[in-house]
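Notes on consecutive records. When two proteins share a document, each keeps its own sequence and its own token line. Never mix them. Below: protein one.
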Amino acid sequence: MNLVHKSHEQLGDQDLDIKEQELSGLMNERTSRRWFLAAPVIPVVVFSDLAAAKVSKFSIETGRKAANSIVDTQRAQKSARDLAQQGKWDALRDFFDDPVMSSFEDNMTKVINSEGLLTSDDIKDIGTIRRYGLAADYIITIGSAKAQLEGDENGVIDGKEISRTLRLANDSIDEIVTILRSARAIT
């Protein structure tokens, strides 16, 4: 949603005069009627992409494939902690760019939007990036770990903090996989 506003620079001299009259209480009925009839119609709310508001539904089969990919992400996540503990920062950067890791959000969206795969309580617990839950927690903590690989202002990387962040990400993805297993979404 985009809100349309006019700045003072965009208002013409006549518009400013009318605004000044209106604010000072000097605007009479005749002036206000003329201003109303001459005023351009400006939409207040503009929907830039109505198609984006539509949620795509996926088949159960597509959801199951995505759920199995999330299990692959969980397995890969375990090796991320090993890389962090060994201080292999370049390997860890490459690891985060791997499709197994970078496709998590897309796979989670397919699982959440698969008709009949999860209960409403499961969906509520897992959540999405827009609605806070375990999936958002995982995405945010992985993003934090990636950002920490840049180091502080001196370029020093805090390995303990990265390991702690990855442990939190592991906890989140473990809970997600537990929910998916209990829902029999994983084959």
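Protein two starts on the next line and is unrelated to protein one.
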Amino acid sequence: MHCNVFDASLSLHNTVGVWGWGRGPDVATQVTYTMVLSNPTFDESPFRVTSSVGEIVSITESALDQSEKSVFPGYLPGVVENATLGKSTNTTIAGADVRVFDIVVQENASVVDPIPPVAPPRGRGLPMDQDAASSLQEWILHRPTFFTHFDAVVVNWKRIEAMSTASLVAEGRWAHMQGLRIIVDFASGSNLYPDL
């Protein structure tokens, strides 16, 4: 038997009351969950709905069209077309059946103190691909967490040399607005042993 919650926040009905208990306020919220219960076997199976987040206030079953069950042959595979599927009741689900329930739960959760944000990195740069054809802005925007981990980009001097003045001004303006530091790497142009 499978129990799947498709969308736990499908219809959120807030009736919130906030009060203090010494270690911080508690919040009582009524939340409606939609649960899809399916039985892929061909036998009747028992089930029970419980909640680990609060008291169940109500359970309402959504009416589904059952007309396909009377089609013969076709509803069941040929090898089990004469199977006895059982009945769907408050405590059982018939074989090859699907049921949908709206479950209202009175959730009780403690409000957690806010976590202070982590300071942005300083002095950490990511080397830009030497053969990157895109602009600096596009290259960084393709890395959505770039500014979470880095505050600088390391660019090869050959890329700077090949750019036009207008492109350098545009990329420099964008980098300045972002607070991005640009480090130009001259290592590939250095000849430490010119006599050899």
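For the record: The mean pLDDT is 78.
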